[in-house]
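Sat 14:20. Reprocessing the chain from the morning session after the first attempt stalled halfway. Input below, unchanged.
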Amino acid sequence: MDNGQAKDAARHFNLSDEVFHHPGMDIYTQMTFIVLKCFSSESNIPGLSDIAKLGRMNIKQATKSLQQLVELRIVSHKIFRRMVGDFQDDRLSWAAKGLLTFCKENPNINLSDLLELSSESGEDEHSIRKALRELDEYGYLEEYPVWSRIAN
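Finished this time. C-alpha cells:
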C-alpha cells in the first residue's frame, strides 16, 4: 500500500443518523444538514454559496433548506442570518425588511416615536405591527429587545 492509499484507509467519517429522524425533511435539507455537520464549529460555518456548491444545489434550494432546519430547531436563527444575510430571506416582506433596516439604525426607539414616524410614510399601526411580528417570528428581533417588546 503506498502512502496515498494508507492516508485514505486511515480516514474515518462519523455522521449522526439524526438526519433520518426528521420526517418530511427533503433531500436538500438532508444534504444541508450533512454539509453543516462536516464543519467543526460555529466559527467555521460555510457561507450560503458554499453550502449550495457542496450540497449540489442552487442558492434558492440551499436557502429553503436552511429555513427548514431553522423551523426544525436544528439551526439557530442567528446562524441562519449569518449564513444567508438579512435580506436574502424570502419569508420576509419588503415592509419587514425595510423596518429591519430602520431597526438596526434605531435600536432603542419606543412605540410612540415609531408610530409618529410611520404616519409620515402612510403606514398605519396595524401594518407596522404586522411587519414587527414577522421579524419577531423569524428571529430577527433577538438582538433588539426593545423592538421585540413592541412586536409583542
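The radius of gyration is 20 Å.
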